[in-house]
Design a protein that fits this description.
- The chain is α+β, with helices and mostly antiparallel strands.
- Helix content is 37%, strand content 23%.
- Strands 3, 4, 5, 6, 7 and 8 form a six-stranded mixed beta sheet that branches. It has a two-stranded antiparallel ribbon with strand order 1-2.
- Helix 4 runs antiparallel to helix 5.
- It is elongated, with a radius of gyration of 23 Å.
């Protein structure tokens, strides 16, 4: 027979990994997931164990309904904090690729399995170049969400000092409305850059993110990244 302590730990881990503010669970699902030859669960056992964990300070929320739903609410880090840590790790030139992957894997342990995918960002590191302000995390988050969802985005783009396939438009101050399929985000130590397929120009272009205004995720599916396309090489070539 499994001890009460072991049973509580299994319940805690199940709730931590499988639930969050957008994903609930029920007593029946908990019983099915944790039942084995050594553990006998009843609805009363589940309710008592959840009450015990709550009394010990674990933030397990109960959504009252005919059957009640449960989810793990407050964690050590918020999802945005995990994203920021992940960005910092991926952006570092002093951490090897292997170490970055190891750290990201560990970071995912601090959120549910549903949130874990968004912790691993579409971000690559390139050698630093001179450039503008990189504090554009709101736009980076929107673009990254579009990449995760496989959707196109639209935005206004100011060509002033912007890197775009090695050339600039004649009207440097003009804001161009563009629709594109985002491939990757790159960070060079000072600026974020977006690699994307442009619907307008029908080619892969490089956009400086701090020149992007009001990015919007569209319903249209994005053009997939070509199999032989290497974002890091493309970014380095465009910035050289």
């Amino acid at each position: 027979m499994v001890s009460n302590k072991s049973r509580l730990l299994r319940l805690y881990r199940y709730l931590y990994v499988n639930t969050d503010e957008d994903h609930f669970t029920t007593k029946a699902e908990i019983m099915d997931a944790l039942r084995d030859e050594e553990t006998i669960y009843s609805r009363q056992t589940v309710r008592d164990d959840i009450d015990t964990l709550s009394k010990e300070g674990y933030d397990i929320e109960t959504v009252v309904s005919s059957g009640n739903f449960y989810y793990f609410r407050d964690r050590e880090f918020s999802l945005e904090e995990l994203r920021m840590i992940g960005d910092a790790v991926l952006s570092s030139r002093f951490i090897s690729k292997k170490q970055k992957n190891t750290i990201l894997k560990k970071l995912k342990r601090f959120c549910s399995k549903y949130q874990a995918e968004s912790v691993e960002r579409h971000l690559i590191s390139v050698e630093p170049q001179t450039g503008g302000d990189a504090r554009v995390y709101e736009m980076v988050n929107t673009i990254n969400d579009a990449i995760n969802q496989g959707k196109k985005i639209s935005f206004q783009y100011s060509e002033t000092d912007a890197v775009k396939a090695g050339r600039r438009r004649k009207n440097a101050d003009e804001r161009i409305v563009t629709v594109c399929s985002p491939f990757d985000l790159a960070w060079d130590g000072k600026n974020f850059y977006l690699t994307a397929w442009s619907d307008t120009e029908e080619k892969t272009l490089l956009y400086e993110v701090n020149r992007i205004v009001s990015p919007v995720i569209l319903e249209a599916a994005a053009v997939p990244v070509p199999k032989n396309f290497k974002s890091e090489s493309f970014v380095q070539e465009m910035l050289s």
